[in-house]
Amino acid sequence: MKFYNFVCGILRGFSKVFFRMEVTGRENIPDEGNLIIVANHKSILDPVFMMASVRNRRIIPVAKKELFKVPVLRLILKKLEVIPIDRENPGLSTIKGILKQIKSGRILGIFPEGTRSETEKFLPAKPGVALFAIKTKANVLPMSIISTYRPFSKVKVVIGEAIDMTEYNTRKVDKKEYQGIAQNMMDVVEKNYIENKNGIKK
Predict the structure, then answer these.
(1) Do strands 155-159 and 139-147 pair parallel, antiparallel, or not at all (unpaired)?
(2) What is the DSSP letter of 82?
(3) Sign of CA dihedral 95, 61, 37, 185
(4) Residue 194: how many CB atoms within 10 A of its CB?
(5) Number of other residues whose CB lies within 10 A of the CB of residue 89
(6) What is the pLDDT of residue 151?
(7) Structure pTM?
C-alpha cells in the first residue's frame, strides 16, 4: 500500500503540473462496497489520470498483457498489482482474479472500449465489464476523461453518479445481454463527456 500511495502521489503531482487536472464528482465514490469505475480511453495517460483522481480507495487497474513484456514496466505493474489481460481471449483465471479483487473491496478501474480510440468518437464497449458488474453486484461509476493530452493543457476528470444496475441484479441475465449492458455504461460516460467538454480546446 505504501508503494501504491507513493506512486499515486507522483501521478497527482505530474497531472497537476503538466495538465492542470481538475476533478469533479469525487463525492460519488463510496468509501466501501463493490465498485467498478468505467472510463473512456483516448491516451496512454488515461490510467494515470484515473489513479490520480481517486483518493479514498485503491484502484486495481486492468492492462493489456503486452505491457508486461517490458522488464522495468513489468516490475512496476506487478508492484501496483495491475491485472494483465488478453483483450481478445481473457482466460478463466484472469476473470476469477478480477472478480476476487472487486469483492476484496478494491476498485476495478477499466476501459470498456478495450483499446484507445484514435478519434473523437467512442469505440463500442466490450462485454467483459458487464460480466464483472453482474457477478459481483458492484456499483458502477462512469468516469469521463476530457483532454487534448498536450503538455500544460487542461484535463477534466468527471466522475458521475452510480449507474442504476438494479434491473440486472434482480434477475437472471443472459450472456447475450452483456454487450448491450456494457454499451449502456459507456453511453453514460460519453454523455458526461459531451456535457463537460467546454473549455477543453482541440
Answers:
(1) antiparallel
(2) P
(3) negative
(4) 11
(5) 7
(6) 92
(7) 0.91
Q: Per-residue pLDDT tens for 144-186?
A: 999 999 999 999 999 999 999 989 988 899 999 999 999 999 9
**Rounded distance between C-alpha atoms, residue 98 and residue 92, angstroms:** 10
Distances (CA, A) of 192 to 44, 146, 158, 185: 21, 10, 7, 11
Strand order in the sheet with 22-24: 22-24, 155-159, 139-147, 35-39, 107-110, 59-64, 83-85
Determine the Cα–Cα distance for residues 53 and 43; give it in Å rounded to an integer: 16
* Strand bridging mode 59-64 / 155-159: unpaired
pLDDT tens readout for residues 102-120: 999 899 999 999 889 988 8
Distance CA 193, CA 196 (A): 5
Residue 79 confidence (pLDDT) above 60: yes
Give CA angle at 3 (38, 29), nearest 5°.
Answer: 30
